[in-house]
Amino acid sequence: MQKRFLIWENPRDAVLTIVLCLMFIGCVNVFSASFVSAKAMFGTGYHYLYRYVMFAALGLAWLVVVGWKVNYHVWLKYGNKLFYLFLVILLCVDLFGTTTKGAQRWLVIAGLSFQPSEFVKLAVIIMGSDSLGSLLRRGKTPDLLKFPVNAAFIQAGVLAGLVLIQPDMGTAAIILALMILLYVVAGLSLREVGALGGVCAAAVVAMIAMAPYRLSRILIWLDPWRDAQGSGYQSVQSFVSIGSGGWFGTHFGMGSGKFFFLPEAHTDFAFAIFCQEWGFFGALGLLFLFLVLAKAIYTIGKNTTDEKGFLLVTGVNFLVVGQAIANMAMVCGILPVIGVPLSFISYGGTSLIATLGAVALVIAVYNDEVKKSNLQNTQVKTFVPRSSSGKHSYVRPRGGKK
Fold this sequence. Notes:
The chain is about 65% helix and about 5% strand. The chain is mainly alpha-helical. The protein has one domain (about 10-375). Strand 4 and strand 5 form a beta hairpin.
């Protein structure tokens, strides 16, 4: 496993440092974006900040346990069982879930609400890594037309379908896209990739045609000013917030978007408030942090000798960094509004815990590789001739920690 990564001793330290930096930025941005609405709704401007810190603490505790205390193969062993677990949970959401803003996506247990679909993203990565990793170990490539090779893809499709019913087309698309990307990385043929792309495109067109509000969302994405006070209001206000930030921003707490102009200012559109208060260079710095994080996670995956570990790290990279870039593109109008959170920056307890759990798996893979490398170093014996006695002996090499 590689020892150094840029200014860090190893890529694991880089991942942890960047994640903590992003969480600090998230704390600052959530408070700044939410204190006006929180004061009006809950009587204190610190409501969402307190909850962000609470969920961050839970997520970090999970990161420590999963990253250092539990071997990641334990999670892979239960990959198939995770499908049935989340199948039941998502059915409960569709039947008994709490409806907010027209979507039935939450379950409430002991007074705490959570969004199971955020954990489904992580479960799909574990399921795909276990199934496809076993395939790669046998020197085979995936085939979507053969069972049980395509079982993981079918399972992801079922879970995505249950999420789509809520309705949550954005999260459903991410769940299916994560599995498709794992199949592509595992060596899916270009012919099947092309055919799958055509089927997915046709499915998207069909779903848009069946739901008029989705077609409206596409039209508003192409021209939000056609209904700037109606369906396009959120996108237009996002552009206004980003543009008013200029090169250096209006500085902390001074952004106007949070004053009931920009809906979802602390959740899906948190990046717009960040751009308004920290400007173009602040946004560039945030993007740079995510790109360095992607490189660090990629480095861990590249140096992983276990096929399942490699796929697991690759899937987490797509989830954490890919989702963040998708959110930035959505807020800037490059992609349509699909309700994707900005990793670590957007407010959302379930999303934050699930994302930290994903990072924990990357740490677990790295730590396992280090243990295997150190074990090999201590077990290898070096033959050293001793001319003075005419005898030979074996001595163990010095193995430094990585």
